[in-house]
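USER:
Try writing one entry.

ASSISTANT:
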Amino acid sequence: MKYIRETIRRAEYQFDTTATRFARRHPCIALFCTFIGVPFFILGAVCVLASAVVCPIAWVSGWM
């Protein structure tokens, strides 16, 4: 368990370092990704997960 926790912390630290370096080198692209890319990613994930729940229910109910 401790090994898994340390691995996750290491990956998180590496991601944070890389994201910070990217944001400092490319501030305009970082702003675009933050305010345009992330909301679209979240909406897409919500759409896919909602479809994964609703489509089987619709298929079993005979609506599809």
In short: The two ends are 44 Å apart (CA to CA). Helices lie at 2-25, 27-61. DSSP finds two helices and no strands in the chain.
